[in-house]
Amino acid sequence: MAYNPKSVIEAGQAILGIEFGSTRIKAVLIDPEYKPIAQGSHTWENQLENGLWTYSIDSIWNGLQDCYSELRNNVKEQYGIEIENLASVGISAMMHGYMPFNKEGEILAPFRTWRNTNTGQAAAELSDLFVFNVPLRWSISHLYQAILDGEDHVKDIDYLTTLAGYIHWKLTGKKVLGVGDASGMIPVDPATKSYNATMVEKFDKLIAPKGFSWKLIDILPESLDAGMDAGCLTEEGAKLLDPSGNLKAGAAFCPPEGDAGTGMVATNAVRPRTGNVSAGTSSFSMIVLEKDLSQPHEVIDIVTTPDGSPVAMVHCNNCTSDLNSWIGLFKEFLEISGLPVDMNQIFSNLFNAALKADTDCGGIISYNYVSGEPVTGFADGRPLFVRSATDNFNLSNFMRAIISGAIGVLKIGNDILFNEEKIKGDRITGHGGLFRTPVVGQKILAAALNSPISCMETAGEGGPWGMAILASYLVNNSKNQSLADFLDEAVFAGNTGTEIAPTPEEVEGFNKYIENYKQCLGIEKAAGTMTPEKREDGGTCCRMDVELLEVRVMGMIDIQVLVPGTLFTGRNIEPITTAKDPYQNIDFGVPFTGRPSALMFDYKCIVSPEEWVWYAKGMSKPKKQAGHDEIEAYIYLQHRWEDENGEIHSIRVGTGYERFSKTQEEWVNGHRLPIHYGDITGEPWYEEYMGFKEMQRAVNSKGKAVLIQEEGWDATLEPTHMVIMLTSGKYEAFVGHAGNVFWVDNVSLVYEK
């Protein structure tokens, strides 16, 4: 039967779904036939504070109230009435993250979102402990990292929840979560549809020496299956949601869910062998499993559907944010040109241009890393657009590269799922902002995954609608159906959307694109360990950190390594295929024939006083060992030649070398590192580390990286090459103290007249 929207709202039969996305809070009102009858939204953005991505508590509530107010206004404009009663409500939000509260209900630390990647040590240790992949963004990783970091607030935690759980708690008074969202806090046992009891016990034993007053299970929300009663709207909750006072208490609430769960519902993908891809600010793919994976994979999360079935999830931190920034440039161009600006038309025109592009994007590559990207092993992100002089650079290839870059990491993760684990999917459905323009995103994703992709009419706004469906499942499931049957028979009733299959040429083209993408990841690595930073006195400098990072070699091999930020003359040799000897991947030095008297630069630094360092080579846990890490700067002038066997020999012509052992908080401008010519081994200040390097390589005439064999000192020879190294750590690769920082600016060579 057809429902009159006005009558539905007046009778209190309307159902409300709300979702807190990364860039928009969205609300949709549906009728008993699951049709949207009103909507509202609020745009917001996260903030980077003290190195962590967050949203303030005020922005959460202001955003919710503004979103609901817009929904109210939409109802009044369309139907001339107020919303007074609702049949049911569902709250969804971005999964994972960290929201700890004390007994008084006060938040103990700023909300840490899924976007943060500072939890590498915690996630690695918990993955080993549980024999289960625990991602960086999961709540348990954030909790344990806070413990490892000695954060004082941890002892006072009374309740730990997600953003959806927090909103639900304040509106209903109930500390609960849907099982799908709960599975992104800590691992869930599909048999019990609650937290894995064995892992909870292991965690409690792990932290027992800390002497906290709480046990893990006591501070977590109760896990609920889809369709279960999760409380109702309280008087206080009604005022929080609708400060106008028109909305009355009493509406039933379904269990709050994460955006992954609402995506599964919105795309009818809760049965085994069904799947969906969500492509918005972040992206993720989900395949409902019919069998367990053969082994844990760092890039594949095991979560659940809203009714507790296991799901293989590939989650990527970045998707459309960088794409939207590029589109914004075209908007600005139209504005300064005095031309009409229609964002829908801009998106449509630019997206459709991508259909005319080369299938491999003409060689152009885009890295959309606005934030860190765990799948490829980056703790911090640098959006990059990369091309060579010979690439086919035009608008069509530019747009296809930007769109392909938005799903490139998703492709890398899913190749493991499909090719190694041989997981099958009968149907994959796309939803999210990438699919708002018909055909384009769908077609490129099909090429990336080598699979037909379907899209529903709700592809662009599936989240809040999917949450509204879960709320409807609570109050309109008179047949007591399973969630899968309810979706098939009541909601979708045979509607499978439109399907696009890839051509062999498109698949081949995307595979070529992704191989270029992997081979150039070294550019992204270099951008990530060296960070542009504003100077206090104006301008920009280079910041170099020593960091303990999760790294993926060729997108496949998981390693944890100690990485110092470094500026050097030379180049990285890509692709990197081994971590055994990192120096074999560097071509040291550049051709140079001058004879400068000094290397000059501005600097400041932080040097840890600790007498221990990390040893982290990969493939095993980092270990502590004795040592004191220091900041290092050096310059070599070498006279090189190559013999008939391709071996490279060198005589040291000039040397400048300095180590900084103490913190220098204020900028030292115009610091000079003198270059001494000839043999320096007899000088009173000479140290062994200033001598010949036995690990540096250069590429010979045959294209092979070989050791530079330093064989003597001679001030009279003409230099042929220069090696400059400015680095935040003095040790060889994989050893150092995470936390050392070296700021450098205005690097130059000095020539005396």
Helical residues, percent: 25-40%
Structural class, by secondary structure, is: alpha+beta
Number of helical segments with 4 or more residues: 18
Averaged pLDDT: 89
CATH-defined fold name of the domain at 521-750: Jelly Rolls
Question: What do we call the CATH homologous superfamily of the domain at 521-750?
Answer: BT2081, beta-jelly-roll domain
Question: How many β strands by DSSP?
Answer: 42
* CATH class membership of the domain at 521-750: Mainly Beta
Rg for CA atoms: 29 Å
CATH architecture of the domain at 521-750: Sandwich
- Please tell me what the overall shape is: globular
Uncertain stretches of 5 or more adjacent residues: 550-559, 576-580
* Largest sheet composition: 8 strands, mixed
Q: What distance lies between the first and last C-alpha atoms, to the nearest angstrom? A: 93 Å
Q: Strand share of the residues?
A: 25-35%
Give an overview in words.
- The protein has 753 residues and is an alpha+beta fold.
- The protein has a domain at 521-750: Jelly Rolls (Sandwich).
- It has 18 helices and 42 strands.
- Strands 27, 30, 34, 35, 37, 38, 39 and 40 form an eight-stranded mixed beta sheet that branches. A seven-stranded mixed beta sheet has the order 17-18-16-15-21-22-23, sandwiched between helices.
- Helix 3 crosses helix 4, helix 13 (395-420) crosses helix 17 (504-519) and helix 14 packs across helix 17.
